[in-house]
Amino acid sequence: PACAATIHKAQGSEYPAVVIPVMTQHYAMLQRNLLYTGVTRGRKLVVLVGQRKAIAIAVRNVAGRRRWTKFAEWLAAA
Fold first, then answer.
1. Cβ contacts of residue 10 below 8 Å, gap of 6+?
2. For 6, phi and psi rounded to 5 degrees?
3. CA–CA separation, 75 vs 63, rounded Å?
4. pLDDT tens string 22-73
5. 32-39 and 52-60 helices cross at what angle (nearest 10)?
6. Residue 55 main-chain phi, psi, to 5 deg
7. What is the CA radius of gyration of the chain?
8. Domains of the chain
9. CA end-to-end distance (rounded Å), the chain
10. CA-CA distance, 18 to 36, in Å (whole number)?
11. Dihedral, 37, 38, 39, 40 alpha carbons, nearest 10
12. Are 78 and 50 in contact, with CB atoms under 8 Å apart?
């Protein structure tokens, strides 16, 4: 049996095997932090399916999106 989940939904979970499609058509999703999260979900097996160029883009893309939270402010106040 198999199931599908987004990397975001899988955050904090582990699975015996993970298959991650990595294609240049999904350019907006090619971010290092997303690839890292997906790869670290696999306990025994991780398979990247797609293009080497897309993996290279994801690994180089460290920009990500700025998070607008008050977390640092809350920590300073504590």
1. 18, 37, 38, 41
2. -75, 160
3. 24
4. 999 988 889 998 999 999 999 999 999 999 999 999 999 987 666 677 778 8
5. 110
6. -65, -45
7. 15
8. 7-77 (3.40.50.300)
9. 47
10. 12
11. 50
12. no
Condensed to tens digits (0 to 9), the pLDDT of residues 15-33 reads 999 999 999 998 888 999 8
- Per-residue HEC secondary structure of the chain comes to CCCCCCHHHHCCCCEEEEEEEECHHHHHHCCHHHHHHHHCCEEEEEEEEECHHHHHHHHHCCCCCCCCCCHHHHHHHC
- Token duo for residue 33: 């932090």
Number of other CB atoms surrounding residue 57 within 10 Å: 17
Model pTM? Answer: 0.73
In degrees and rounded to multiples of 5, residue 72 shows phi and psi of -60, -40
Per the listing, tokens 């790869």 go with: 39
Q: Which amino acid is at 71?
A: F
